[in-house]
Amino acid sequence: MDKTPKVFWNLIGIGLLAACFLFAIGRMAWKAFTDRRPLDQGGQVVLRFAHWQLESGVRRAFDLAAAEYQKLHPGVKIQQLAIPEKIYVNWLITQLIGGTAPDIIEMGKGMSDERTTRYFLPTSPIVDTPNPYNQGSPLESLPLRETFIDGMESVFSTTLLEYYGVPLSAFTLRMYYNLDLLQKISGAQEIPKTYGQLARLLEQTDAYALSHGHKLYAIAASNENAPALIDKMFRSQTSTLGEKLAYDFLSSTRPPAARLAAGFVQGEWDFNDPSMRSAVTLLRHLGLHLQPGFMQVSRDDAMFNFIQGNALMIPGGSWDISSIRAQADFRIGVGMIPTPLAKEDERWPYAEGIISDESNNAAVVMAVTKESPHPDIAQDFLLFLCSFSINQMWAKESGWLPAVNNAQMGPEAQVFMPNLEGFTGGFSPGFSGADTKRILSTSMSLAVNPGGSVDKFITHLNQAFPSALLSDLERNAIGSRINSQRADTIGIALQMLAASGNTQALDKLPILLEGSSGTDRGYYYGLKTIDLIKNSKAP
Amino acid sequence: MKSFFIGIFLLSTALAKESSDLDKGWIDASGFLFNDAYSFFSSKNPDDPTVQLGMASTLLNIQPRTSQNIQKAEAILLNISRTQPPDSTVARLARFLEARILESYRTPPDLPAAMDHYRALLEAKTGLPLIEIAGSRLVIITTFESASHEDNLQALKKLEGIQEQIVTPEGLREFHLSMGSGILENRGDPTTALEHWIAADRIGFRRKENSISIWLNIARISQDIQRYDLAAIYYRKFLEAFPRDPRVHTVKARLATVENHGQNP
Question: Could you identify which of A147, A456, B80, B146 might form a hypothetical disulfide with A139, taking C-beta atoms 3.0 to 4.6 angstroms apart as the criterion?
Fold first, then answer.
């Protein structure tokens, strides 16, 4: 056979491959170039903003707010990009690195300090001046940061020493229920407020399911909502213990892990402590009425059970309301998570009272990207979104909580407002980090399965806890040391800038140093506790 | 001779320009962009001590973190200390970083040597807030130095005098915070610890979280030692300043308790 045609076809093939390769390179280069340019159309500025809140009410609320802004600013066209949560992080990183990020992005997922400082504009320059869109509102004369329920604490980066973004909402944990089913089971119009009363409803639900041959769960639960519920129950029993173990328990924003760990190693407490035993008893009682195998159940599957009428209740965030209302074909009720109380007929003697909503922090934080061709307009739109009247309207349309102070909510939304008339609560076993959380999660079946028991669970936790504490504290110590080392370079840089009169550095350096001793002390205390654990484990 | 002075003038002008040009590197470094800052300083005049400080300080945190980078940074810092006037800002900051390397970057750390550096820096009364944090660092290392609380308390007592060497509010506040906590960690006199914390509070905080922390800690320790009047003052301060904090209800209950004790001693 003549070989010439084969060589010819090979050359043709290689040529085609090379052409495809060059075409792909050229297309990417062209796309990168064109995407970096403003997407403005016909003299109109196009502003794009992205978030992962796919709930229909939220998207509608954003559209309405955008329409209001466009009325005021006819030269601006706003496009909303709702990105599915599952791909959000990958999408975000690709957009940021590729230089194709929208003007405004919701922060929270996939963020790091370096990514934040490299790709986002700080809000710091405007936090001390009033929001111009608040004119005529009760917040008119207040500096921007004082117009938010949390004073913008949630958007201040203690490592970057800057405010990033503005919050639009706040989240709370509540119990949703199937009102039609509740009436059939108990005749009540709402779920009980105390755990003792809830216990009776749980029994009624079991009896109803049995008598009607209905596979019905009292509470639909998943690996997402159950830990939050269990955490709340634990904390209801351990506040006195926490305060006894650590003088700074109340003053700390989170349980002082090393101090609690040191207490455990030194025998000041374990899971046999009466308050911990009470918490585990509460966990077992609750767990027996949660959807079986809940630690392996996804959020969507638990929600599906509730929406299908196969569960009476489901714990969920305030963010779930619009989705639940849109999907359920029964009446929805929303109540506070029933509280264990110390009253005689409630049987939880270590409860101090109702636990307040700890997360008095704002959420749905939107920030302007450095890539934005129109950063001033993007920032103006953000100020518009978080203004008193627009944030209130946004909250009403979305069914979510507003982030601004004094916003008037409809009666249906009142139940989601953060409850500050409660006690602070104690700590749950996952207080020190990933490994104590893992121990709690993997041994959960010992507490909540019918074959388990309070004693089995407590014995297991007491045995497994020191190793988990050790690895958590070692990880925390490494993190503290790295943070402290980073602060060295940042401190030198700020000190040098301050020496040359840089006003921003003069402002930031005192904030960097403020409380730095607390971080250092925490590091050394952690090391001391690590030694304690190692010595106690030594044969 | 004339040409010599012209030469000196041109050189100093060039160095001054170099320094102001270095702001970009410092801004990157202060904003977590350590690798960018290091590249920037690396492209500048390597004989400029400010450039050297920029390189050394960013080397400590550039990715990937390596022991070679730390050693290289340490060598640059030692060179700055040796070659620059001891009272120059760059030399002082270099010595501060040397101390930090001894304390936090070496494995195992050389704490006695780090403490010597910190003491020397405080004696120099630099007036630089970053350096005056050395007072707080001395206290913290001492707090956890020995297994014996008694020994640590004695050592802490000896450190009381260094507050005379601290002139910046930042340095003094962190010193008092650390001293108060150090005394309590070692089961020392709570009244002395409270005095330090109250001194820190008088200097004041800018961040809400830090005010809350010190006020609630003062109130709690005061309550523990039955100084109910003092506890009530600090609980009230918290309630007035932060009425929307989730801890308000708990603090109101604590306040009611101390007020009740105050009336019925």
Answer: A147
